[in-house]
Amino acid sequence: MTKASENKKFFKAGDTIIKQGDEGESAFIIENGRVEILIEKEHGLVQSLGTRGSGSIIGEMAIIDKKARTASVKALEDSELLEITCQDFERKLSKADPVMRMIMQVVMTRYRDTIKRAHILGNTPGYPTPEDLEKGFIEKANALETIKTGNEFKEAIRNGEVLLNYQPIIEIKTSKVIGFEALMRWYHPEKGPISPNIFIPLIEENGFIVEASRWALEESCKALKRIEKQQERYKNLFMSINFSSVDITNSKFKEYFDTVLKKTDVKPQQIHLEITERLLIDEPEKAKETLQECRKTGASVSIDDFGTGYSSLSYLHYFPISTLKIDRSFIANMVEDKTSLELVKSIISLGKNMNLEIIAEGIETKEQKDLLRKMKCDAGQGYYISKPMPESEISEFMSQNT
Ligand code: C2E
Ligand code: CA
Ligand code: CA
Question: Could you give the angle at the alpha carbon of 63 between the alpha carbons of 60 and 68, nearest 5°?
């Protein structure tokens, strides 16, 4: 590293700018160049969290929390960075206009809360989870660049690299399969499997998500028809499909929803639209309108990852919601952690009071399932019941599900 001028730092391609585990005393704004953020995991695994270019800020957590660096940052090319030390930051803040100072303090408190929550939940939103790593879903910075700039994802769907896996959802009381959640997988021929946690946010950004979701709806409806044909003793299985806010706020959404259902001959009553709370907060009017239209057809609307988003529950009355899916972090912790257990109990009783169906996500042990049964949770999914699987394995799974 060479010192260019006061607070300006120059790094050559390959230089380490920030080292994971080091004490952090400053943040950097990238003025020129490109850097890569890397996390070192156990067993020497290194995971890339993506790249950042000019205008981005890196290492900002250090000047807020003054804790050890949680990731390393390397220069991918010769880069010029502006360093902001803790002292600079505090000095600037103390001199700032009182309103500005207050806003900064509120933002910083919220930021800390988000980080704390993400930590409690065991993962950082948007980043691959440890399970992703186990599955080999290691992000490749190059792959991301191509998705961002090219038509690669559209091509991938056409080439059959993008597939859906299905995770069974059971009625907890009887353990009987009542439906499936469709989950997208991308098996890149050179880059290997890429986690939906990585590619979904990117295709949301560049708009390909609309086409991808339409494809997922049609594929999963066709699969549901085939499953029903094979499994005569199962009637009215449902298919739960994840939709992004980009989908729900798209003016063509309801039109293609109707077209696909008609074409595949699936009853709207068999469709659960999975959305997250964020959509309801960001685009309330549009979301309400689209979801109401879908509900009128008989389809269900599920709130995904319930409990991780917003503390205001007033929206539960405002929006036409039929199902709450309790986030897996609460299920994972409820056996040991009283707060999580209380939260699960409250969500279940809230659901009963409001006539909502409750689905527990991420059931990994018999103990968790038994506890949920005692608490009268309606339905559940998770590795204990089954991992998401390709359609070809469903038949065998169903024959063992009595
Ligand atoms: P999600 O909607 O919350 O989906 C559940 C995720 O939890 C899935 O990860 C699933 O494999 C995982 N999971 C299920 N049971 C267990 C368990 O017992 N333990 C643990 N540790 N994990 C479990 P996956 O398939 O990697 O998907 C990640 C996320 O990507 C999804 O989270 C969803 O937000 C998004 N996603 C996946 N497919 C689609 C899609 O077709 N459209 C949209 N918009 N988003 C999708
Ligand atoms: Ca989901
Ligand atoms: Ca979820």
Answer: 85
